[in-house]
Structure of Sedoheptulokinase:
Amino acid sequence: MAARSVTLGIDLGTTSVKAALVEAARGDPSGFVVLASCARPARAETAAQSAAAGPQGQEQDVRRIIQALHECLAALPRQQLCKVCGIGVSGQMHGVMFWKTGQGCEWTEAGAAPVFEPRAVSHLVTWQDGRCGSKFLASLPRPESHLSVATGFGCATIFWLLKNSPEFLKSYDAAGTIHDYVVAMLCGLTRPLMSDQNAASWGYFNTRSQSWNLETLRDAGFPVHLLPDVTDPGNVAGRTSQAWFEIPKGTQVGVALGDLQASVYSCMAQRTDAVLNISTSVQLVASMPSGFQPVQTPDPAAPVAYFPYFDRTYLAVAASLNGGNVLAMFVHMLVQWMADLGLEVEESTVYSRMIQAAAQQKDTCLTITPTVLGERHLPDQLASVTRISSSDLSLGHVTRALCRGIVQNLHSMLPFQQLQEWGVERVIGSGSALSRNEVLKQEVQRAFPFPVSYGQDVDAAVGAALVMLQRNLNQQEY
Ligand SMILES: Nc1ncnc2c1ncn2[C@@H]1O[C@H](COP(=O)(O)OP(=O)(O)O)[C@@H](O)[C@H]1O
Ligand SMILES: O=C(CO)[C@@H](O)[C@H](O)[C@H](O)[C@H](O)COP(=O)(O)O
């Protein structure tokens, strides 16, 4: 049988699931080729399991996410899947889900392919969840971490459930992000394993000592038994316990990565690159020099935070909560208004028409601050529209102003002058909200006077696959 030289990358995003098959290609300048890729909408939004979460609760049905994952795998070429020698998994950070050890899934032969179906699992409480208000967050113990704790962070959500739904927590004995869950199910892990990238995104994790703030958490009555063991990104979490589609049993699976870090890994060709990702959320990222250590006292008012990357290095990240999701809310609002007026229009039609209209509208005085969800550093700054004049009310004006507002909001968090001071020479765009929207691209170029190029489609999935490919190549050298 031919040596297996292909790796599979997965990105369990907030809006869509992506998968990519990557193969080493010594003749290619990048060193690899993307053999095939696929994206499928998850459509996983669902009502919060705890009524006390209120309208700010943001939860997703894990079954629908896994269904979208299996749709992606089913769409990939079988003859390539059987050559997979490693699986890299990434996904939406911060969120938390729970399951019962040993009962988290059931392997079935759905159709011709063996797949796993979620069983005793909770919903995923995502990074967009707003149930932890500022008063509740202020009641939590101070973290021993350089990252402050925000609503939607795993540990904050667990503290909230401990206070408002203690019985709910008692029915589970394992927890992790959605991508930690997928790794644990693929490998049949009895205890979930987490990379420091995802541990840091939960809060109460000290990236210097690579350990949870166990004493602080225990003293506050936190169920520390739910905290996964933590390991370095790039490490193997285990091997597939079953054949999965045409992927052979015993295939190495890497510990799950943050989607942001996986995207950067696929796009950032040199340290002087900045990566601007617009997916459901938005992030502007620059790499910090090796040896850089963030200040250990968290500053919740700081718009830039430092996220662990690989090899104990850090990324400087301006992470806005308001990106593609705000465009999606605008589209959904228009579709709802037209339905109220008796008209039925597909969302995809609205996206293409509004982007087309805005592309014709090169400029506008209309000004939109798009922060419908507030920001972690400015939770009370909600969205606003100013400079409304009778001449600026077309779909083109509003869409141009909305795209400009999303990019300008990010720029206000991390101005291009700061990027220049850090030695940034180029911006790489990633994320499908950006790749599918010419107007967003124009606004990025307008706000950031650097050469702008675009990374891989399904960038985080490609990045997760590349991490496993690099590991496989390193192993072959020794
Ligand atoms: N038909 C479309 N045309 C342009 N943009 C779209 C379209 N459908 C969705 N989007 C944008 O893409 C965003 C989701 O991007 P995606 O990369 O799938 O997110 P994630 O990686 O967070 O799951 C949506 O929030 C929306 O703004
Ligand atoms: O919020 C931050 C960082 O705090 C982001 O980098 C974070 O990774 C993303 O918001 C989540 O992972 C969701 O990503 P995506 O679904 O928008 O791609």
